[in-house]
Write a structure and sequence with these properties.
Elements lengths: L4 H13 L2 H7 L4 H15 L4 E2 L5 E2 L1 H24 L5 E6 L7 H9 L5 E5 L4 H10 L4 E4 L12 E16 L19 E4 L7 H9 L5 E3 L5 H10 L3 E6 L10 E5 L4 E11 L7 H15 L9 E2 L2 H4 L9
Parallel strand pairs: 3-4, 3-5, 7-8, 7-9, 11-12
Antiparallel strand pairs: 1-2, 5-11, 6-9, 6-10, 6-11
């Protein structure tokens, strides 16, 4: 049986929206035409893919078919790109946007010069994990940490960068004149978290590790808002990657942390059952950039990593 990708595309759009009307709008077609395509696919497969009574939902057969259907569409796109000589596009979702993840990705891609990336927005690691498992994206890039309930089962990851973080304070902060600080020196200050602390795994583990009990969180309204908050409150501080650009340094101090130096772990993640054709090339690009820039330098007596990140160090860089 030949699988018509137009029918598969109709199924995938409906499976993602669970609404025939919205799926039809997404595909720029009529609801009647979309329903006919889905019905034709069900007839060809001789199974029901959707339950339509009391709302639209996937049947067990539909649940089984969905991941492979997304892979079939992605394979079709890669085949077209190959025929046109364009090379496959890599869909990559990044998170931790305040810490500018794409600057690291860009340096790794520069080492290759021929990878076509299609960056996608993502809210956080849990949402990227779900997108990877659904087949909605090819790669994720950010700080990976264990998810409750095995929600990251079936995903692989590779540590590609360990980045020192600095303490950022206003020029009026009591410690603003220090050349460097120990994390414990910040115990009398308030850690400002640009989102709910329960969602910020690194900051939460950092605060717990070094006994920082004064914590405040708020909405993530972007980097400018973060800077303005720190600049306007002489009692608070936040953490920021040492190599990431801060807008308008006036009235701000970025102070290195030592004894120990906290490291932020950047990783690539992908679905174990689907390795993109360009994944190995990308891993080589990260390896080359990392060696040139010493991205994976780590000394236990000098640096601090959350316990959850230690296992990532066991994977050889060249694997």
């Amino acid at each position: 049986m030949d699988l018509d990708l137009a029918l598969v595309r109709a199924f995938v759009a409906t499976a993602e929206t669970l609404h025939f009307g919205r799926a039809a709008e997404q595909l720029n077609t009529s609801q009647q035409a979309l329903s006919k395509r889905v019905a034709r696919l069900e007839s060809l497969l001789a199974v029901r893919l959707f339950e339509r009574q009391g709302g639209t939902r996937l049947t067990e057969a539909g649940e089984r078919f969905a991941p492979a259907a997304r892979e079939a569409l992605a394979a079709g796109e890669r085949a077209i790109a190959a025929a046109l000589g364009a090379g496959p596009v890599v869909r990559i979702d990044v998170w931790g946007h305040l810490f500018a993840p794409m600057r690291t990705v860009a340096q790794a891609v520069e080492a290759l010069g021929s990878v076509r990336l299609e960056p996608g927005p993502a809210r956080d690691w849990p949402s990227v994990a779900e997108a990877l498992l659904r087949g909605d994206t090819d790669l994720g890039f950010g700080r990976v940490h264990p998810l409750p309930g095995g929600r990251d089962k079936g995903l692989a990851q590779r540590l590609v960068r360990l980045e020192p973080v600095d303490a950022v304070v206003s020029a009026d902060h009591a410690l603003a004149g220090a050349a460097e600080l120990r994390p414990a020196d910040l115990r009398d200050s308030t850690l400002w978290c640009p989102a709910e602390l329960t969602r910020l795994d690194f900051l939460r583990r950092f605060a717990d590790e070094f006994g920082l009990t004064r914590r405040q969180d708020g909405p993530n309204l972007g980097l400018d808002h973060l800077v303005q908050h720190v600049r306007g409150d002489a009692t608070c501080f936040t953490l920021f990657p040492s190599d990431a650009p801060l807008p308008d340094h006036a009235d701000l101090r970025s102070i290195p942390l030592t004894a120990p130096t906290p490291l932020y772990a950047w990783s690539l993640a992908w679905r174990e059952s689907h390795r993109h054709a360009r994944l190995d090339a990308l891993l080589r690009g990260f390896t080359e950039a990392g060696r040139a820039r010493r991205w994976l330098d780590y000394a236990p007596e000098r640096d601090w990593l959350p316990d959850a990140d230690h296992a990532k160090l066991a994977v050889p860089v060249g694997d």
